[in-house]
Amino acid sequence: MNEPQEYIIHIVLGIILIAIPVVKAMLEKSGIPALVGYVSPGLLTKIIDYYFPFITSNLQYIIAFLAHLGIVVLLFHVGLKSNIKGLIKHKHLIW
Questions:
Q1: Within its chain, how far is the Cα of 18 from the centroid?
Q2: pTM confidence score
Q3: Where are the domains of the chain?
Q4: Mean pLDDT, consecutive 10-residue segments, the chain of 95 residues?
């Protein structure tokens, strides 16, 4: 954990985490859904890692955990925004 590369990884991960709300706000102002603002930094990180490998196996576990946590939060948010009465009205379209 004391290797210089580990410090660089933490700095890069911190920059990414700080950039996500900024990217989200910019995309929302231009009319693009907020979900794109959350997904695009992850894709960009993966592309950069493909050409300049900097993600270690330890960091992969952390990123995987955060990704799974993000999916749970996203599904919870969708559940809160769902209109149950409206879904029941349109159940004939589903079944």
A1: 12
A2: 0.60
A3: 4-94
A4: 68 80 83 79 83 80 85 86 80 73
